[in-house]
Amino acid sequence: MNDLIILGAGPAGITATIYAARKKLNFLVITKDIGGQAAISADIENYTGYQYITGPDLAKKFKDHMEEFKMGVKEGEEVVGVEKINGTFKVKTDSETHESKTLIIATGAKPRTLNVPGEKKFKNRGVTYCATCDAPLFANMDVAVIGGGNSALDATLQLMKIANRIFLININPSFRGDKVMIEKVEKSDKVVTLHNAKTLEILGDKMVTGIKLEKDGEQKILNVQGVFVEIGYVANSDLVANLVELNKRGEVVVDEHCKTNVPGIFAAGDVSNAPYKQIVVAAGDGAKAALSAYEYLSRLG
Amino acid sequence: MAIKVYSTPTCPYCRVVKDFLKQNKIEFEDIDVATNTEAAKEMVEKSGQMAVPVLDIDGTIIVGADLKAIKKALDLEG
Question: Complex ipTM, two decimals?
Fold first, then answer.
């Protein structure tokens, strides 16, 4: 039986593996990918020790560091269930079942979806969650950006250089992002901002042709070919929803030692309710979770 | 085997795919659809989608950084 199984290999999971390896724990890492959201970040300028590094480059450094220690990394294995049976954790994947005395949940987060009709149907057919990736495909087109925080403003700034016209659809009465970005967006004659506007539906045929929204009690349709959804993130906690306490945002509730309400289960990074979704915070919490797990195992004897 | 990768310079998922191919010493044609609008059209027609990266591996079209599908299409172990 393993001492520890770490679910996820983003900044939190990878840092946990480094600490667990140095404590010579007998452990496994099960993950869909390596690097998590950090691997798909464009420019990183706030990770200590790097004035500037790209997401894929930082993920590569993380991976190299992790691989210095010889240990079991199950990459590409998908976890289908996690159970606690007679004090032992059983992690079932698409190919086998692993047993462990402790668990660290470091499964991260994914972009929040609008949950409106048409969104699923037109995903990658005009609807996108990665402006950094797909914005250049919408050259000289009319597009909508949904959201009012920094990621929506950032997407809008990118699109100002590419698209013909940008409708910025914000459900709240004002923006929540950084002042510098708001000013740039408000100055642009390409951007039409709609506050207090709720997106109701994404319309289209083969590809997106428009969106339906409600503003001031009236419904209207905007003709756009692209819809950039930038409304934040949601924790990847579905797998453990029946096992540990989640808050109303779906995040795993942890204390300052990264302990969940279930003895032997720890959580770190964006999946947890720790504030500030930052790479450096996730990495720090990964270390805390591994040290907490080690302490817990020591007491088990 | 002819492999094309349609990508944009800023797209981190595209980097993940291209790094993966390089690591496995697999040659590919790198097509920047941000500047090449003809290629962008071709990509949308082939994949039916407006998203990068798109891989064309001898006619097998894969959208996104789906390393599992890419390994399968390339007959790579693991």
Answer: 0.87
